[in-house]
Automatic annotation (TrEMBL):
The chain crosses the membrane at residues 7-26, 50-72, 79-97, 103-125, 137-158, 164-182, 265-288, 300-322, 331-352, 358-382, 394-414, 426-445. It is found in: Cell membrane. It is a multi-pass membrane protein. This is Facilitated trehalose transporter Tret1-like isoform X1. InterPro entries: MFS_dom, MFS_sugar_transport-like, MFS_trans_sf, MFS_Trehalose_Transporter, Sugar_transporter_CS. The lineage of its organism: Eukaryota, Metazoa, Ecdysozoa, Arthropoda, Hexapoda.
Length: 466
């Protein structure tokens, strides 16, 4: 029963990531329409406006993400989710009532304010779930994002423009309403001094009484995790301490200066997020239909996009299983190697046309699977579990902010880059990033499967244990 409660709450909050998937991949099914002479808008979009259609949401996400860390610690996880989810509702309202190019781009900009959900949702999920299922549940973020992509491609391919808009608006309103059912994160309640409320939330999610030993142990674990002195003490020494003495609170920046393990964890998070973007699947998702039309001209772009989204969802479930079976580190290493091979084959096939078109489709889909199992899932799980509570919001905000900068760059330059060098050579670049990601993970990423945050921080304090 405990796992079911945690799974239901995870599904509710992860549904917000499905809404992100819908909005972020919406340009894939509309950019050709918007730039054509038969556009539904007041005029065809220019080449620059088409580029902004795919990348403008990253700019507004860059603006909202720095505030997300503050809001997480003041409003709490639940109400932060509600606030950012409302931007999706507002964006679809604008799209539904206007056919003006500037208004559509403005709606895309507004929708980007919810981009920090990729930060907020994993944090919330990691804080309500027990260690044995934490990785699986946190990876649900990408599973639901894949569901959103699939819904977007299906609606774009088989619904009229107006029907799709109103469907997306209804979905976003439902997402806000579902959040009412959630309980606040116990860690946030602890930080606010509401220990009794935190105990009640833990008891609910573990299906035990508030007075049970399980609740008492988790409260003690949260207290210990909120203690910043982990660079000098091992978890074993911590357990031998007869009493827990709460340290004086310090700012996140002072904490970073004091904690070597936190600085190392942040570097790993930044590198993994860079890999997640520059391995290239985000480009395939946002520009799916025109990309498939060029790479696989013998197949319907809509069908190719839908198959890609289905594989993303299936791969997300596979990654959720492998996350607890093979571990985060191994998954990142070997999936990145698989993605590297796929990109090399894709690049040579598109560049040199050495085989039939079905080979292009086959390795494009293999790339989707490898990426989703590795760089598309692992960084989001790791970032949600490697930072101490004192700096989790700020550190995650920095990592996601960097991720959004990378997203804007790769989405904005993709079309001009393809025009300049061709689609094939672009996949050579993606292949090199995949290879470097695998090498970095082998040497610098520790295994965090089933570990509490204090033990994970001890691994970063002693990198030889990674």
């Amino acid at each position: 029963m405990a796992v079911i409660k945690q799974a239901i709450s995870t599904a509710i909050v992860s549904y917000l990531c499905a809404l992100l998937g819908v909005m972020y991949t919406w340009p894939s099914s509309t950019l050709v329409l918007f730039s054509s002479a038969n556009t539904t808008l007041d005029r065809p979009m220019t080449e620059t406006e088409v580029a902004l259609l795919g990348s403008l949401s990253s700019i507004s996400a860059l603006i909202s993400t720095p505030f997300s860390g503050y809001l997480l610690d003041t409003l709490g996880r639940k109400y932060s989710c509600m606030l950012f989810a409302l931007s999706q509702v507002l964006a679809w309202v604008v799209v539904s009532i206007s056919y003006n190019v500037v208004a559509i781009l403005t709606a895309i900009f507004i929708s980007g304010f919810s981009g920090c959900m990729m930060l907020v949702v994993p944090i919330y999920v990691s804080e309500i779930c027990q260690e044995s299922i934490r990785g699986t549940m946190t990876s649900g973020v990408m599973v639901f994002y894949g569901f959103g992509m699939l819904a977007s491609y299906l609606m774009g391919g088989y619904l009229s423009y107006e029907a799709m808009i109103y469907s997306c608006l209804s979905m976003s309103v439902l997402g806000v309403l579902l959040l009412v059912l959630l309980k606040e994160s116990p860690l946030h309640l602890m930080r606010k001094g509401l220990e009794k409320d935190a105990a009640k939330v833990i008891a609910y999610y573990r299906s035990v009484k508030v007075t049970s030993k399980t609740v008492e142990e988790e409260i003690q674990m949260l207290r210990r995790a909120m203690n910043p002195d982990f660079d000098d003490l091992t978890p074993e020494v911590e357990k031998l301490k007869p009493e827990f003495k709460e340290n004086q609170k310090m700012s996140a920046w002072k904490f970073f200066k004091k904690s070597r393990s936190s600085r190392r964890a942040l570097v790993v998070a930044l590198v993994l997020y860079t890999a997640a973007i520059f391995q290239g699947l985000m480009v395939v998702q946002v520009y799916a239909e025109p990309l498939f039309a060029e790479a696989v001209p013998t197949m319907s772009p809509t069908i190719c996009s839908v198959i890609s989204a289905i594989l993303t969802v299936v791969s997300g479930f596979i990654a959720a299983f492998l996350m607890e079976w093979a571990g985060r580190r191994n998954l990142m290493i070997y999936a990145s190697l698989g993605a590297c091979v796929s990109c090399i084959v894709l690049g040579t096939q598109i560049h040199l046309h050495w085989g039939p078109h079905w080979i292009t489709a086959l390795f494009m889909y293999l790339f989707v699977i490898m990426y989703t199992c590795g760089a598309g899932t692992v960084p989001f799980v790791l970032v949600a579990e490697i930072f101490l509570p004192e700096i989790r919001s700020v550190a995650s905000m920095i990592a996601v902010e960097w991720c959004l900068i990378c997203s804007f760059v790769v989405l904005f330059v993709f079309n001009p880059l393809v025009t300049a060098v061709g689609l094939g050579p672009v996949f050579y670049f993606f292949a090199s990033v995949c290879l470097l990601s695998s090498i970095f993970s082998f040497f610098f990423v520790p295994e965090t499967k089933g570990l509490t945050v204090d033990v994970i921080q001890n691994l970063f304090a002693s990198p030889r244990k990674c």
